[in-house]
Automatic annotation (TrEMBL):
Coarse class of the protein's main subcellular location: membrane
Cross-referenced PANTHER family: CARBOHYDRATE TRANSPORT ATP-BINDING PROTEIN MG119-RELATED, D-ALLOSE IMPORT ATP-BINDING PROTEIN ALSA-RELATED
Keywords: ATP-binding, Cell membrane, Membrane, Nucleotide-binding, Repeat, Sugar transport, Translocase, Transport
Descriptive protein name: ABC transporter domain-containing protein
Any single Pfam family the record assigns to this protein: ABC_tran
Any one GO MF annotation of this record: ATP hydrolysis activity
Compositionally skewed regions (Gly residues) per UniProt: 244-274
SMART domains recorded: AAA
GO cellular component: plasma membrane
CDD domains: ABC_Carb_Monos_I (cd03216), ABC_Carb_Monos_II (cd03215)
Membrane topology: Peripheral membrane protein
Every ABC transporter domain range: 12-248, 316-561
Length: 567
C-alpha cells in the first residue's frame, strides 16, 4: 500500500473539526488526513491554528465539533494518555526528559523491563534502547545521563521513547528551531527511516525549505481554516523513493546518516494535488507542476510576499558599541568588535559557539571576567543591565518566552514592561499612563502583525510566534541606540519575518546600531553590512557584506579556516 492510493485509509484524520477559545475561533471546520509512510507538513502563519490542531490530535484539546478518526474509525481522546495508547506521540521543540535518569531509563519511563522479583532490569532496558537507536540509525549511548544531552539528542530520546511504545504517528512541533544544520540533517535521516518503516509524521516548521526537503504533502491553515492540502512535486522530475508500509528500501539517500542539504523526499510526478480524496485538494498547484515555495507562501499569507530581505543602504556613522577583549572564563575569550550607528552587524556561528553568551555579558545579564564595553564612548558597568539600558542598549533575548514575558500579564502591559524602569516615557509621577500604554501596544501590535483578540488578554493565550512578537515589541518600544537581537525571526512566520527585517533595516537607517545574532544564514547574508563569526567561544572571522557567502561564513563557523580575524 502506498500513501497515494486513493482508497488508502488514513492512520489518523480530522474531519470537520472546530475549536474555539472564548471569542477566538482557533480551528474552523478543519479536515486533515495523515497516511502511513508519509511526512506531512502543517504550514501557516503564527496563530493560524497549527498547535491547536496538533493538541487536538494529541488528546490535549477536545474538538467543539467534528471528529478524530483512527484507522478510519471515530474516536474520542479523553486526554494525552488516550492518544499515546492509540499510538500517537508528540515530540516538542524542547523535550522534557528527567535529567538525572539515564537515556535508557528515559526511553522506558513508566514501562521499565522488570525481572522476576519486580526489580528493574537495567541491562534489558539498555539493550532494548540500543536496538531502538540502531533502528533509527543514530549513535547514542543508552547509559549516559540525560543531563547534558543536546536538544537534538533529547529529541532522539523522545523519538525512541515513542517507538518503544509502538507509536505509528509522530507529531513534531517545530523540532528544528534550535538545531544546527547537521543536527537537522540527522533528524531528517531518522524521519526518512521512520517513514520507510511505515510511520506517519506530521511536521511543523516555519522554514519552508525544510518542508520541501522532507515532506510529501503539506496542509496549510490560515486563520484557523483549511486552505489546501497539496502533494509536493519534485521540480526536477526525479523519482524519489516510493515508500509504503512494507519497509522496502526504494532508492538512494533514504536511510539514517547525515546527508547534506539534498535528499528531497518528494513523490515523483506529483503534479497538482490529486491525493487521497482530499476535498481541499482542489486548489492544486498552478500548472500542475507541483507546489513551489512562492505558492506555499501565497497559501499561508493570502497574497504574494514582499521582498524577504529589504536591506536599505544607509550611511554608516560613528562607533556606537565597542566591545574590547571581552572574556568570560570557560565561555568566550578575547572577543573584540564594534557596531556603528546605521550598521547591521550579523553575528553568525553554530549553536553553542558563545554568541548569546557574549550578548548577555555585553548587556550585563552575566558578568565578564576581563575586557570592556563602551556605548557611544562611555564605559558600561560590568553586570549591570539597568546601566546598559540607561546608556541606550536593548537586548531581545533568544529564549523569549522564558526571559522576556510575564505570561499571566496582559499583552498591553508586557509591551510596556520596560517602561516600568522609566525608560519608555509612560511613567508619570510614578503612575503608568494607561492611554499612552495602550496606544503604544496597539502601534506595535499592528506593526508586527500580532494576532490577538484583545490587548487586555493574557500574553500566555497567544500562539508561540505571537508571543515572540510581543517581546520584540517590548524592546523596540524603548527606542534604543544599540539593539542586540538574538535570533530575531526564530519561530516567526514568513510574512512577519519580512516585516521584522524591514523594521531592522529602518532602525539602522534611523541611526540605530544593530547587532543581529542569527543561525539563519540567508538572513545574515541578506541583512548584515558586516558578518562576524564565532567558533568555540572566539571570534574567528569578520567578513564585509560583499565577501560574505554561505561558504565563507560556514568555514569560519566550523573552524575550517578564517577570513581575516576580527580586530
Ligand atoms: N488556551 C488558549 N486560550 C486562548 N486562546 C488560545 C489558546 N490557545 C490558542 N489560542 C488562540 O488560538 C489561535 C491559534 O493558536 P495556535 O497556537 O494554534 O497557532 P499556531 O498556528 O500554532 O501559531 P505559531 O506558529 O505562532 O505557534 C491564536 O489566536 C491563539 O491566540
Amino acid at each position: 500500500m502506498t500513501r497515494s492510493e486513493p482508497d488508502a485509509v488514513p492512520v489518523l484524520a480530522l474531519e470537520g473539526v472546530s475549536k474555539s477559545f472564548g471569542a477566538v475561533r482557533a480551528l474552523r471546520d478543519v479536515s486533515l488526513r495523515l497516511y502511513a509512510g508519509e511526512a506531512h507538513a502543517l504550514a501557516g502563519e503564527n496563530g493560524a491554528g497549527k498547535s491547536t490542531l496538533i493538541k487536538t490530535l494529541a488528546g490535549v484539546h477536545r474538538p467543539d465539533t467534528g471528529t478524530v478518526l483512527l484507522d478510519g474509525r471515530p474516536v474520542v481522546l479523553h486526554g494525552p494518555a488516550d492518544a499515546r495508547d492509540a499510538g500517537v506521540a508528540v515530540i516538542y521543540q524542547e523535550p522534557t526528559l528527567f535529567p538525572d535518569l539515564s537515556v535508557a531509563e528515559n526511553v522506558f519511563m513508566g514501562r521499565q523491563p522488570r525481572r522476576s522479583l519486580g526489580r528493574v532490569d537495567h541491562r534489558a532496558a539498555r539493550t532494548a534502547a540500543a536496538a531502538l537507536f540502531a533502528r533509527l540509525g543514530v549513535d547514542l549511548d543508552p547509559q549516559q545521563p540525560a543531563r547534558g544531552l543536546s536538544i537534538a539528542d533529547q529529541q532522539l530520546v523522545e523519538i525512541a521513547k515513542a517507538l518503544s511504545s509502538d507509536a505509528r504517528v509522530l507529531i513534531m512541533d517545530e523540532p528544528t528551531a534550535a538545531l544546527t544544520g547537521s543536527e537537522v540533517a540527522r533528524l531528517f535521516g531518522v524521519v526518512r527511516t521512520l517513514r520507510e518503516q511505515g510511520a506517519a509524521v506530521l511536521f511543523i516548521s516555519h522554514r519552508l525549505e525544510e518542508i520541501f526537503r522532507l515532506c510529501q504533502r503539506v496542509t496549510t491553515l490560515r486563520d484557523g481554516a483549511l486552505v489546501a492540502s497539496d502533494l509536493l512535486g519534485d521540480p526536477q522530475g526525479r523519482r524519489a523513493p516510493e515508500s509504503g508500509g512494507s519497509g522496502a528500501s526504494g532508492g538512494s539517500g533514504s536511510t539514517g546518516g547525515s546527508g547534506g542539504s539534498g535528499g528531497s523526499d518528494r513523490p515523483a510526478g506529483s503534479g497538482g494535488a490529486a491525493g487521497p480524496a482530499d476535498a481541499a485538494d482542489g486548489a492544486g498547484a498552478p500548472g500542475g507542476r507541483g507546489l513551489t515555495e512562492d505558492d506555499l507562501v501565497r497559501r499561508m499569507v493570502g497574497r504574494d510576499l514582499d521582498e524577504l530581505y529589504p536591506k536599505q543602504d544607509t550611511p554608516i556613522g560613528e562607533v556606537a558599541l565597542d566591545v574590547r577583549q571581552l572574556t568570560r572564563e570557560g565561555v568566550f575569550t578575547d572577543v573584540s568588535f564594534t557596531v556603528r550607528h546605521g550598521e547591521i552587524v550579523g553575528l553568525a556561528g553554530l549553536v553553542g559557539a558563545g554568541r548569546s553568551e557574549v550578548a548577555r555579558a555585553v548587556f550585563g545579564v552575566d558578568r565578564w571576567d576581563a575586557g570592556s564595553v563602551h556605548v557611544d564612548g562611555r564605559p558600561l558597568t560590568n553586570g549591570a543591565p539597568s546601566i546598559a539600558m540607561a546608556a541606550g542598549l536593548a537586548l531581545v533575548p533568544e529564549d523569549r518566552r522564558a526571559q522576556g514575558l510575564v505570561m499571566g500579564m496582559s499583552i498591553e502591559r508586557n509591551v510596556n514592561l520596560t517602561a516600568l524602569t522609566g525608560l519608555g516615557g509612560t511613567v508619570r509621577g510614578g503612575l503608568m499612563d494607561r492611554r499612552a500604554e495602550r496606544s503604544r501596544a496597539l502601534d506595535w501590535a499592528v506593526r508586527l502583525q500580532v494576532k490577538y483578540a484583545a490587548l487586555a488578554d493574557a500574553v500566555g493565550t497567544l500562539s508561540g510566534g505571537n508571543q515572540q512578537k510581543v517581546v520584540l515589541a517590548k524592546w523596540l518600544a524603548t527606542t534604543p541606540k544599540v539593539l542586540i537581537v538574538d535570533e530575531p525571526t526564530r519561530g516567526i512566520d514568513v510574512g512577519t519575518k519580512a516585516e521584522v527585517h524591514r523594521l531592522l533595516s529602518r532602525l539602522a537607517a534611523d541611526g540605530v546600531a544593530v547587532l543581529m545574532i542569527s543561525s539563519d544564514l540567508p538572513e545574515v547574508l541578506g541583512m548584515a553590512d558586516r558578518v562576524l563569526v564565532m567558533h568555540e567561544g572566539r571570534l574567528t572571522a569578520e567578513i564585509p557584506r560583499a565577501g560574505a557567502t554561505e561558504e565563507s561564513v560556514m568555514a569560519a563557523a566550523t573552524g575550517r579556516g578564517t577570513t581575516g580575524r576580527a580586530a
